[in-house]
Amino acid sequence: MDVREAIQSRRSIRKFKQQSIEKEKIQLILDSGRLAPTGHNTQPGRYIVVDDPHQIGKIAAACNHQPFVAKAPLLIVLLGDLSCRVKGMDEGADVLDAQFSGPREKIIRDAAIVGDHLALQAQELGLGVCWVGDYEQLPMRQALQSPPSHYIVVIFAMGYPDEDPSPRPRRPLNELVYHNVYGQVENS
Q: What CATH superfamily is the domain 3-175?
């Protein structure tokens, strides 16, 4: 499968076969995320790989009890490490503090690139993925026992798909693209 095919065939999968994902595939997915470009090569992405059903249940509860999260055989939690952007910061610094809003935005942007690399690699390997963002930082931080200096960017519910959803409609490019400034369309 080439990159374009992976992009075109990727869907949000919420039904998974109860089948473990091979460790080699998980490693390849994580390594693909590691290779993502980041601003100033700061590499803020950190991963928590969750395959313990009890821990998956705790995370699903912190995701507003979304049933598909609880049923996923694997979760990969993607965090952004603030210390990559704020050198010499206090060990107890909280990424949610207003003083860190600028660096926080940068680690979120960088981690989003990492996340897309993860999702597309999983797609190429025949795995289904759903990006999960319906949670609050503090309850999720508690469920994951993650440090306050790390922002929880996204959770990937992952497994072998047990559904094949149809493509969702996409807007045409001519409704989305402007030239030089917002609102200006290209002259034909």
A: NADH Oxidase (3.40.109.10)
Question: CB 153: neighbour CB atoms within 10 A?
Answer: 22
DSSP codes joined into one string, the chain: --HHHHHHH--B---B-S-PPPHHHHHHHHHHHHTS--GGG---EEEEEE--HHHHHHHHHHTTT-HHHHH-SEEEEEEEEGGGTSTT--TT--TTSGGGHHHHHHHHHHHHHHHHHHHHHHHHTT-EEEEE--S-HHHHHHHHT--TTEEEEEEEEEESBS--PPPPP---GGGT--SSSTTPPPP-
Segments making up each domain of the chain, as ranges: 3-175
Q: What is the pLDDT of residues 20-76, one digit of tens each?
A: 999 999 999 999 999 999 999 999 999 999 999 999 999 999 999 999 999 999 999
pTM of the complete model = 0.93
